[in-house]
Amino acid sequence: MGVLTEGTALSWNEIVPICQVYRSYALSQLVKIFEKCKDYQGDSFLWGDELEFTLVHFDHSNKRVQLLLKAHEILPRLVETNEENHDDTPSIAWHPETCDFMIEGVPCEPYGFLPSYLNTVEANMTLRRKQAQEILSEQSDCEYIINMSAFPRYGQGQFIYSSAHDDLQEVTEQSIHYPDRLISPIHPRMKSSIVNSLARSQGPPLVHIPIFRDTSTPSPFQDLSFKGIKDFRDDHIHLDSILAGWGCCCLQVTFQAQSLTECLQVYDQLLPLTGIMLALSNACPIWRGYLTDIDSRYEVLFQTGDDRTPDERERSTLNSRCSPAPFYLCDEHNHLNDISLDVDENVVSTLTKHGMSSSLAHHFGHLFVRDPLVVIKESLHLEDDTSSYHFDNLNSTVWNSLRFKPPPLDDDRMGWRVEFRPMDIQITDFENASLSVFMALLTRVILTYDLDLTIPISQANENIVRAHHRDSVRHEKFYFRAGDDESSLMTINEIMNGNDKFAGLIPLIEKYLNESENINSDTRVTVGHYLSLISKRAAGILLTDASWIRQFVMSHPAYKQDSVVSDEIQYDLMWKITQIANGHDTCPLLIQTRMKTNTHLNPE
């Protein structure tokens, strides 16, 4: 989501002359944050999740489902609902997202350190969908809020449902498939983010996704709407818009540490897991109505979020603004930062003079080579020296797989935080809660048993590449460090469930839980089911969402073995997903029927 500030957004031509001034403000604020908060100790372990939802409209008579551009209508109602909430039901913070068919829901209050909070996550996720669904159902019985990482026919045919016509309007991108009316009309900075990214990169992105080759897929397959353009590739789907990536939905989890030192430790130990958890959460095998050879949204994000200039793209020392985490942050892991990246040496020098460690200073030195993508005119020259607006804005417009989040200057309630960002959103609340709770417990295991999972950055990046591959959980091996040994290639089953050299992350979590004295029976049963889901998915007994979606399409009677996902197939798939998510149908390939939880909105 990032920093949402209303006001007059500057154009790229207006931003260019003030980039250095803006960065100087941000650096000054970062120094103040560090000096104020570097010695914080004893902050409570707090954590939370962010879910991005998709709004859809079903036309049952014609067997069609389309994206519903209605977020701008229901968001004010959702905000009002939670402002008027005076009982003990948890309040939800609702926010706009990039596209008008997306909304983000976040608990207003973070989950606490007590184990009983683990048994509230799923109920809270269900509450979020329930609040939005009740508003949608007031006007239509055909409109739904769903958990869907990438809408299958997004960018293909008549994929938008709206009473509004795409009349004369300003064109942001010269896109063949993604019209401007997809963009949220109420997101304070999204339109300017897109316009400025396009201006800085000097043109729209062109993403290439390899087609899944089935028995009747044409050879070569050609994406004919792009035939004749530069960089056209046979046997690939093409996406030509920032919205193709920014219209995807994800699950993010944020953890607040007790101190800066602990936060750096958690960050470094979670970094090697970004590719592992990406593979386990894969949910995107279909792009623009075709089965493809990838299973995740993340590579599409890397390419559509890339605002580098043509000259910058020629350098290997600057990645896309959306990319894997670039550095470890603890000095003892600096030798594993084996990829050379641009840094602003003046920023590094300034920060180290104020006592910041070398590795952390280099992390920020790399952040500060970025230009600000969004500048609000009214907030450019702030007179309030208690605000960290410029730094927070710069930090929140670089979308790495992990985000290191210092406390804001104007909120003493927040501590040092790590945001874990790679996971695709899952079809059901149960799956999303399973992944979220697993990650929360893993941070406790890392700190309790002082695990060292670090591997070279180059290997962590390779894991993310491998995670995209079709059915990567069952068919790929990933770099992982088991015990004191150097990293080696292991299956996700070995990483999660163990082998003769490594106990496995899930057995380590089980050990931690068994040693905990204050976990109640309901919570223990719930967490047991969550861990069982991940264990069985890692072992290949249960499918990832991407594998199940692919299997559903390929077994559909209307599928012609040509890689095409028709409107009819999409309709049946999306209705099945809606029924499963709302408890009206089951799917034993995703969740075993015995995996029943008794979750509560409030901790016991």
UniProtKB/TrEMBL annotation:
Record-linked Pfam families: GCS (PF03074)
Enzyme class, broadest EC rank: ligase
Keywords noted in UniProt: ATP-binding, Glutathione biosynthesis, Ligase, Nucleotide-binding
UniProt-listed InterPro entries: GCS, Gln_synth/guanido_kin_cat_dom
Pathway linked to the protein: Sulfur metabolism; glutathione biosynthesis; glutathione from L-cysteine and L-glutamate: step 1/2
GO BP, one annotated term: glutathione biosynthetic process
Gene Ontology molecular function, alphabetical: ATP binding; glutamate-cysteine ligase activity
Lineage top rank: taxon: Eukaryota
E.C. number(s) listed in UniProt: 6.3.2.2
Catalytic reactions on record: L-cysteine + L-glutamate + ATP = gamma-L-glutamyl-L-cysteine + ADP + phosphate + H(+)
Gene3D superfamilies, sorted: 1.10.8.960, 3.30.590.50
Family the entry assigns: Belongs to the glutamate--cysteine ligase type 3 family.
Name under which the protein is recorded: Glutamate--cysteine ligase
Species for this entry: Adineta steineri
Classification lineage: Eukaryota, Metazoa, Spiralia, Gnathifera, Rotifera
